[in-house]
Structures are given as structure tokens and as C-alpha cells.
């Protein structure tokens, strides 16, 4: 049985993300592991140890009560699913990444800063994405689940794209969703149709999934192109490999796009180049 790690801070953002992933867990027949990380604000760093222990005990007791209530409600509403819980003291990002070594997916909510900030911003989600050993599905606060019908995978013909597509197809096949592999061709890029055709052929030979399509999308700016593509109503998820820094820099031309204010409130599936 696959395992979905779901970090929660019991906020409304986390609750909306949980509502999003429940039907995914049902389709994947996955166990959902609810994780809450307990820590104290930075203002406590200079406090005496006995104060820290007392405050942490209060924080943990409150977390246990909220987690028990959440688990009870989930088991009552979704008896067909398996839920387990874990409460850990520590650094939020480091703990999530460590716990993810025993999971197949991380699925978590974000506060909806847009896909660009989800990938490169300073949020917990973006830092988890940068370090995670497994795929991370981050769900913006305003996104709601209406099924998964169409996934766009942004590719730059990197060798790791084949491994990433295997994970994408694991998710897509349970929803019979289309995977559209898109390469953004910018004005400064030398067109190489032979490379594109060879890449497509290698994918089709390696990935046994019938609903694959391929497209080269010419555009002067990669971020603008991706924002336009994923803003289409039929697209639910944008998949990328953000840890591949050199390849991603070439793909997205970060220095040209930092000032852009366009946001896309769609889920992002971030895939590591090396997985468990």
C-alpha cells in the first residue's frame, strides 16, 4: 500500500489541502500519514530550559488533542481509508524530509503564493520541495479538487525526465488523465526537431502509458508560457523537476523572470531527480 505523507498545522489551508488529497488517496488506495511538527517560536531561543520544556509540553498536548480529533473525524467520514498520525518535535522542514523517506508521496497545502513562489520562494513547501526524496504535490489554498484529467510536465529533455514521468504516470493512470509533455522553445534556443523526436520516442518506449502527448511551445519567456498553459481550465497539475538547478535555470531563465507577478493557482507536482 503506498503512503502519502500529509504535513499539517491544523490551519484552514491544511484542511483545504486535505480535502483535495482524500480522493487521490482513495484512487491510489494509499495510506495517509498525518504529520504535525511541534516547535517553539524563535523568541524562545534565549529562554531557560525549564521554560522551554514547559512550553513545549503545552504545545504537544494541544497538538495531540487536535490530531486525535482530526483522525476521529477522518475515520468517521472516510472509513474505507487508512489514517495514521505522528507528532514530532523538531525543525519543520527537516522533520518532513526525514519522515518522507518512509513515504511514496508528500502532499501538502501552500498559502497560494503562485507556482513560481511555490518552487523558489521561502515557504516551507518550497524548502521541502528542494530537499524531498519523493514527489511533492503542493496544493494552493484556493484550489479545489475536481478530478485529475490533464497534467502538464515541463521538460527540457533531461535524462531524469524519464524517471519523473514514471511517477507522474502512476498518478495519472488511476484517473485516466492525459500527460502532456511540453518543451518551451525560447527565441534564443536553437530548434532541434531531431532531439525532440528522439526524446519522444524514448519516452514512448520506456513509459507504458497510452495517454501521452508531446508539444513544443514557442514563446519568448518560459515562465509566461507555463503560466498561460496551466491557466487553461482543463489543466489541474503542473509537474516539474525543480531540484535540477542547472537544467531548471536553462529552462526558466530565472534572472529574466523574478520580477513577474503572474500567479497560477494550480497544484504543482515537484519531482526529485533521484527517488527512494
Show the helix and strand layout.
Layout (H helix, E strand, L loop, with lengths): L2 E5 L4 H17 L2 E8 L10 H29 L4 E8 L2 H8 L5 E6 L4 H6 L3 H8 L4 E5 L9 E5 L6 H13 L4 E8 L7 H14 L5 E7 L3 H9 L6 E4 L4 H8 L1 H4 L9 E4 L6
Parallel strand pairs: 1-2, 1-4, 2-3, 4-5, 6-7, 6-9, 7-8, 9-10
Antiparallel strand pairs: 5-10
Helix pairs in contact: 3-5
Descriptive labels:
276 residues; alpha/beta; Rossmann fold; elongated
CATH architecture: 3-Layer(aba) Sandwich
Structural class assignment: alpha/beta
Measured as a percent range, the helix fraction is 40-55%
Mean pLDDT metric? 81
Report what the structure shows:
The protein is an alpha/beta fold. It has ten helices and ten strands. It has a single domain, classed as Rossmann fold (3-Layer(aba) Sandwich), CATH 3.40.50.12370. It has helices at residues 12-28, 49-77, 92-99, 115-120, 124-131, 161-173, 193-206, 222-230, 245-252, 254-257, and strands at 3-7, 31-38, 82-89, 105-110, 136-140, 150-154, 178-185, 212-218, 237-240, 267-270. Helix 2 (49-77) links the parallel strand 2 and strand 3 (82-89). The two termini are 15 Å apart. Residues 113-122 and 244-263 have low confidence and may be disordered.
Amino acid at each position: 500500500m503506498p503512503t502519502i505523507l500529509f504535513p499539517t498545522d491544523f490551519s484552514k489551508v491544511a484542511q483545504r489541502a486535505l480535502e483535495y488529497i482524500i480522493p487521490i488517496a482513495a484512487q491510489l488506495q494509499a495510506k495517509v500519514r498525518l504529520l504535525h511538527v511541534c516547535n517553539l517560536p524563535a523568541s524562545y531561543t534565549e529562554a531557560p530550559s525549564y521554560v522551554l520544556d514547559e512550553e513545549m509540553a503545552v504545545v504537544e498536548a494541544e497538538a495531540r488533542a487536535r490530531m486525535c480529533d482530526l483522525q476521529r473525524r477522518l475515520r468517521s467520514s472516510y472509513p474505507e481509508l487508512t489514517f495514521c498520525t505522528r507528532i514530532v518535535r523538531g525543525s519543520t522542514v527537516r522533520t518532513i524530509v526525514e519522515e518522507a523517506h518512509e513515504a511514496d508521496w508528500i502532499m501538502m497545502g501552500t498559502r497560494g503564493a503562485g507556482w513560481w513562489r511555490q518552487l523558489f520562494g521561502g515557504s516551507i513547501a518550497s524548502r521541502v520541495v528542494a530537499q524531498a526524496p519523493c514527489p511533492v504535490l503542493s496544493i494552493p489554498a484556493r484550489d479545489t479538487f475536481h478530478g485529475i484529467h490533464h497534467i502538464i510536465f515541463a521538460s527540457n529533455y533531461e535524462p531524469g525526465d524519464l524517471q519523473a514521468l514514471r511517477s507522474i504516470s502512476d498518478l495519472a493512470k488511476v484517473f485516466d488523465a492525459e500527460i502532456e509533455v511540453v518543451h518551451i522553445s525560447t527565441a534564443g534556443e536553437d530548434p532541434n526537431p531531431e532531439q525532440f523526436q528522439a526524446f519522444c520516442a524514448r519516452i514512448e518506449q520506456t513509459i507504458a502509458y497510452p495517454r501521452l502527448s508531446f508539444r513544443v511551445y514557442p514563446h519568448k519567456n518560459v515562465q509566461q508560457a507555463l503560466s498561460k498553459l496551466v491557466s487553461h481550465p482543463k489543466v489541474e497539475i503542473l509537474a516539474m523537476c525543480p531540484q535540477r538547478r542547472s537544467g531548471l535555470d536553462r529552462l526558466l531563465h530565472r534572472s529574466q523572470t523574478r520580477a513577474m507577478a503572474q500567479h497560477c493557482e494550480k497544484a504543482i507536482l515537484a519531482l526529485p531527480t533521484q527517488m527512494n
